[in-house]
Amino acid sequence: MPSIVFDHIVKKISNAKAAADALATHTKHKGITGSIREIALKQCIEPFLTQSYFCSSGIVIDSLGNSSDQIDVVVYDRRVVPPILVGDGIGYHPVESVKYIFEIKSRLTATQIKDANKKFRSMRRLVNFPSHQKDGPIKGDDLPVAVLFAFDSDIKGSEIERYIRICNSNDYACTVICVLGKGYWKLFEDGTWAGRARKDDDPKFLEFCLFITGFMNTLASKELNFRTFSPGSYVGNYPDTD
Hints:
With 242 residues, the chain is α/β, with parallel strands linked by helices. The protein has five helices and eleven strands; from the N terminus they run ααβββββαβββαβββα. The strands form two sheets. The protein has a nine-stranded mixed β-sheet, sandwiched between helices. A two-stranded antiparallel ribbon has the order 6-7.
């Protein structure tokens, strides 16, 4: 029997999807439609953020001068280093503070998957918590969790099989896939995917509840394992002056 928390999560995503669908029917402008979907998803995940985390959008940067493509939704921790916000919830986010990034699609297609992968691969330019090795390359920690989220899909078949087929080199750009009405999957370190495709008798939006469960668990774990960082490295290193 679904719990009160399960019902609360389902109500959030159900209301957000319905509102976004209704607004999207009144515009054919893809940019506005995309913004509506971004707002809808933010409304669904913000209630489940632990106390140190916030939602925004924009570009992720590192202290070496690298930057990502524009990202739909960024979940960041202000305790590490604050973002440089240039507008209402839009800005530049130091990679050390970022825990999740999202690419959001209204209706997932093969073209949309390729577009999301391009955005996610742009993150590979960044070095997270750079460590300068003596006479060697600069090394960094793992990059943020990359989530491909879609409100709908254009296929009846397996969503995860399509994603794997498109990434035929096994070079997976994202680490989590959640498609409403289709399923939820997570990439493990050995390169295999685990998750659940939606079944006919599943509760509505079960896939989103499974995603939120993992999302909350990860953020709670990060709250307890906080890593400090010296944000002054983003300003630059200058010699002392008299």
